[in-house]
Amino acid sequence: MERILVIGANGQIGSELVDALAAKHGAENVVAADISHASLYGAKIYEVVDVLNTDRLAEIHDKYEITQVYQLAALLSATGEKAPLKAWTLNMDGLLNILELARIRGEAGKPLKVFWPSSIAAFGPNTEAVNTPQYTVMDPNTIYGISKLAGERLCEYYFQKYNVDVRSIRYPGIISYKSPPGGGTTDYAIAIFHSALKGETYSCFLEAQQSLPMIYMPDAIRATISLMEAPIENIKIRSSYNVSGMSFNPQELTSEITKNLPNFQVHYAPDSRQAIAASWPQSLNDEAAYQDWGWKAEIDLNALVTDMLKNVRVTN
Ligand code: AKB
């Protein structure tokens, strides 16, 4: 039986992952943890945890006899640029604290399986931008991206040196409606739905033609759980797997939305986030994830837009 801890449970991925894991393993086996005082999404078990507090991490692991941990607490790309030192400390030390805990527990005969999210931000301006390969130039130029690339190297190091079973995905921009946008460069593709449904003109901070890899949340959750459930011998990559859902630019997303809301308009006012987006891939090659653990996206742009319009309407 698995006992699972999700750190960053009030964030974009955590808020949906906790429910998916509870449906699979039973709500009594999933501990939602975050730095704020309460669960924002009604988790059955909730603990206040700061991932930078190693004593508290050890205490929670002992209390619930945790066997799997998802370390999702992080500052994203745009927020990270406003507070680079804070982003570096949270993103790097948060991961390192979990990897160390997994090493210590593994050596004590209590293995801890770890999931940690990397990102397309780990790539950079000299990366092949179209159909970006699994292995290629990686020269990120945001603090978030640098922390993701360093984190990938740490994951592989802890696997090779200490046999820690750590698994990771390079997420594209994740589109979802449950939690509010959280300081990412890809978040325009969430905010745009809120404006569209309020009848407002959306002011887009990226250029109309700036394509980025994206994925709809149900596909992202399915990818995450499939990777964590794959047999250990199938996991050939211990840095992080490219995983792709679809690719689109703001103009293509707008055209899809206007099929449903013909009066919707977008005005383009690119800001500093445009330079971040321009340094990232436009589409990803996720062949390795398919070969190793059978990953295949199911949700395309049309299905994403239909579902977002239905659900954002309900929560607005
Ligand atoms: C961001 O935009 O910062 C994130 C990401 C692509 O990792 N959504």
Automatic annotation (TrEMBL):
Domain NAD-dependent epimerase/dehydratase as annotated: residue spans: 4-234
SUPFAM superfamilies named in the record: NAD(P)-binding Rossmann-fold domains (SSF51735)
Annotated coiled-coil segments of the chain: none
Family: Belongs to the NAD(P)-dependent epimerase/dehydratase family.
PANTHER family in the cross-refs: L-THREONINE 3-DEHYDROGENASE, L-THREONINE 3-DEHYDROGENASE, MITOCHONDRIAL
Annotated protein name in UniProt: NAD-dependent epimerase/dehydratase family protein
Species of provenance: Undibacterium seohonense
